[in-house]
Amino acid sequence: MAVIYYNRGGLDKKFSSDNQAIKILYACRAENETAVVPTSFHAHENNLELQYIFGGRANIIIGNHVHEVCKGNVIVYNAGTLHDERPDAKLGVSFYNCGVKNIQVKGLPENHLLPEDVSPVLNTGEMSTCVEMIFRELVEQISLKKTAGAAVCSHLLNALLIILTEQIPNEKNLRGGKFDSSFLRCKEFIDANFTETITIEQLSQIANMSISGFSHSFKKFLGIAPLQYLTRLRIGLAQKILISTDKSIAEVATEVGYDNISHFNNQFKKFVGTSPQNYRKLWVGNEQFKNLNHIYNSLMKN
User: Do 67 and 24 fall within a single domain?
Assistant: First the structure.
């Protein structure tokens, strides 16, 4: 069982900035039945997310790169970075994650921990036990609302960021993405317009290729067909809305580009393996569900 615990206790700590204090937005531990639930393409526009893998394996697409992750890896999702998480079908993937706001590293945009040319998958090596303990304790402090939680989480988060930034120089730089310019144009067009009606004919024209040739090449480069990529973008946005707002399923369907709620439900279940309502209960739980708008909006202030 995995439930996201939203932090409402003002756990603040300064890190490389004289003007803003870091804010932990949420923390989560996911395993068992949630370990094989995929998270389709989405981005965290207003915060950095850190994820620690403590079991299983997954293939993660981040931007234009595919990464295989396993135990001991920390994945850094800079704000606004599009990513897709596919757990191993047999092993699943077990992880901790936390959302952090007001990160300011010199020379980088706000809520970015890594330059764009550095691999977002960090190897914790000998520090893996320590890193896992930090993530575990962050979840416990927030979920149990411990009396000294604010102070404990502030120090834990600061320690985690120091460990990760020390590791960054040891990671390899990313090579150029697998896409040539025509495919990048198509991908960027889909990324910007996926809640609107897009046809394969439009995309093949942008790529200046035949429909069959474009479809074959797109799948070869990214591993999925172009319209499947479009659908996964929609489902990914729906997953994000479901766990951060208390909008109705019908409202979510409309917002991500579906005018038929039955079709939305079918597509969601096809890609995620469960219904939108069950997904929400799995990740949010019954206690927070009806108060999500208030919780999330209050967290995103300042």
Answer: yes
CATH number of residue 9's parent domain: 2.60.120.280
Q: Structural domain tally of the chain?
A: 2
pLDDT tens figures, 246-264 = 889 999 999 999 999 999 9
- pLDDT tens for 113-161 read 998 888 899 999 889 999 999 999 999 998 887 777 778 888 899 899 9
- Give the predicted TM-score (pTM) of the model: 0.76
Q: Answer yes or no: do 121 and 247 share one domain.
A: no
* Residue 16 Rama label (left phi>0; alpha psi -120 to 50; beta): left
Residues 76/113, Cβ–Cβ less than 8 Å: yes
For 221-270, the three-class secondary structure string (H helix, E strand, C coil) is HHCCCHHHHHHHHHHHHHHHHHHHCCCCHHHHHHHCCCCCHHHHHHHHHH
Whether 302 is in a domain gets the answer no
